[in-house]
Amino acid sequence: MPDTNGTDKHEQTYEVVINGTPYDLDDEVVTYEALGALAFPGHDPTAIFTVASKTATAARGASGTLLAGAPVTAKKKGTSFDVRLTTRS
Predict the structure, then answer these.
(1) CATH number for the domain whose boundaries are 15-86
(2) Cα(69)–Cα(31) distance, integer angstroms
(3) Per-residue pLDDT for the chain (89 aa), expressed as one digit of tens each?
């Protein structure tokens, strides 16, 4: 059903910033893997990332570094992520 602005209430997007680039997400919950894919499209599937956020809420209310396989809840507007490829020896 459209709201007073003519947009569909069910078509909410979540404005996030990943490594300085803005993205619109369809869901407030985003995973470590999805953030890696957005930050580095076509990356090596065995790549490991460091994902950090100051404004997102991880499972159990934690914030900071996101672990592989873990989801995080983005705010409607203003959630920022720093995603870096890491190397292992």
Answers:
(1) 3.10.20
(2) 7
(3) 444 445 454 568 899 999 999 999 999 999 989 999 999 999 887 888 989 987 777 765 556 788 888 888 888 888 999 999 986 65
